[in-house]
Amino acid sequence: MPSTGYRRADSSWHYLGKGPVISESAAPRTVRELGEFALIERINARRVQAPAVLLGPGDDAALVAAPDGRFVVTTDMLVEGRHFRRDWSSPREIGRKAIAQNAADVVAMGAAPTAFVVALGCPAETPVDVVDDLADGMWAEAARAGGSIAGGDLVRSPELVISVTAFGDLRGHAPITRAGARVDDTVAVAGRLGWSAAGLAALIAGADAEEFAEALAAHRVPQPPYEVVLGSSWRAGHSLTDVSDGLLADLGHIAEASGVGIDLDAAALCDPALDALARRLDADAAQWILAGGEDHAFAGTWPRGAELPEGWRAIGRVTAGSGVTVGGARHEGGNGWESFRGADSAPGPGPR
């Protein structure tokens, strides 16, 4: 994001100087009142960049180190009303979620997140405090993942739109892709499955916030277990993905890319606490686990008989054939999220 001491008002330019911009009457309340460049200056003030960001906001582009001559890059977008609702999540939570889902994709390649570039579209009447809180959430999650916000863009749009591009460092290692699974591999997962879907179901149902607090938190701010992948012990794994669209859908990508089948153990996936919440909503916890998505756990395959590192648990095995089965049978129900299929892939109302 460019950082400057000037703001455009209509066709003229006004020098604002450094520091916070205060009008003679009162502090600006909306993005329109503050102005684009003053807002950019404000949200970048006093931020500390990660070591890999050699030049952050303030120039035409950022400069990010690529120590081994390569970098991993991914991008993802969130649109208000489609992927989040501001009456369901705070701006800070939305900001953290936007970064987390991109950081998880980088980590799923075996890379350590280094930098993020954020493009934000918002209505002119958006309160400045909303953008402040969004930025705070983004910076907090970027730091948790090991990176920082290196730059971006700010534009006017009819609704809140967030596009994040994330970069990662392989640190001299080969990337971990979806294409390495082998027959007889152990399928394992790190992180919790189904809890984000449970939180979404609770929001749709208007369920008791205290009773569903854990699920609501999982939906609003996913907690990818970055450290269990970035530890050196992962390198024995054959394939890896993050669980964003749903376990069946994402393992299906591994199966297709590797030319294999995957069979899951239903008992290994069972979560008694999630079952209890599902009963309260007359829902199916297995569907949340298998097709809910947005947990941003990690799933991968390991050589048969290999000792799984701490934080991983076995949930199935790789087979000859194709597709993903549960206990040897195809799952009856949705497999996960696909953007342009709508309700066919994500039954029920609510943002995705």
UniProtKB/TrEMBL annotation:
Q: Which UniProt keywords apply?
A: ATP-binding, Kinase, Magnesium, Metal-binding, Nucleotide-binding, Thiamine biosynthesis, Transferase
Question: Binding positions for Mg(2+) 3?
Answer: D60, D105, D242
Q: Which positions fall inside the PurM-like N-terminal domain?
A: 58-168
In which residues is Mg(2+) 5 bound?
D245
Q: Does the record's keyword annotation contain ATP-binding?
A: yes
E.C. number? 2.7.4.16
Segments of this protein annotated with the region Disordered:
328-352
- Name the chemical reaction catalysed here: thiamine phosphate + ATP = thiamine diphosphate + ADP
Q: What else is known?
A: Reaction mechanism of ThiL seems to utilize a direct, inline transfer of the gamma-phosphate of ATP to TMP rather than a phosphorylated enzyme intermediate.
* The name this protein goes by in its record: Thiamine-monophosphate kinase
Species name: Nocardia bhagyanarayanae
